[in-house]
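Per your request, structure below.
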């Protein structure tokens, strides 16, 4: 049941935007509640590298809204765990870039699979129409985010 086109107002749009923000936060907390202790920080960092590719430390810190020392510590932990690798920046030999390793891609896939397992019982209980509505809504959110950030999903990982 949608809003009739003639009734779409700025207030209705704001209500939808607020609902999306609140429900996205609730969904994230719901999924994280039963994951490994490192899930949130690791998942966020690995997802950023999967989405943006190789990043310099400053770029990563800005995207993750971290101070440079905190970003350095996070990257050092991920490198030590074998999930991320350092490489020389071809544009600036003094700088390094960070990118996912095969193990990092596997860990990100595992984290996403844990989230799917957490959500699947509820999704499996949906009827075909509700499942189609949810699929369409997920596509709309993806498109909305891509339009708002001028980003597109990578062919290698459309779920970024």
């Amino acid at each position: 049941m949608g809003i009739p086109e003639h009734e779409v107002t700025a207030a209705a749009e704001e209500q939808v935007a607020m609902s999306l923000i609140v429900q996205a936060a609730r969904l994230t907390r719901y999924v994280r509640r039963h994951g490994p202790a490192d899930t949130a920080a690791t998942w966020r960092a690995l997802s950023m590298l999967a989405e943006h590719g190789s990043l310099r430390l400053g770029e990563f810190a800005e995207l993750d809204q971290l101070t440079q020392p905190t970003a350095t510590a996070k990257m050092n932990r991920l490198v030590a765990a074998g999930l991320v690798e350092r490489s020389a920046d071809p544009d600036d030999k003094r700088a390094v870039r960070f990118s996912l390793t095969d193990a990092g891609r596997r860990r990100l896939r595992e984290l996403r699979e844990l989230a799917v397992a957490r959500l699947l019982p509820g999704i499996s209980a949906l009827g075909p129409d509700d499942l189609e509505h949810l699929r369409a809504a997920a596509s709309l959110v993806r498109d909305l985010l891509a339009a708002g950030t001028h980003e597109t999903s990578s062919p290698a990982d459309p779920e970024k």
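The radius of gyration is 19 Å.

Regards,
D.
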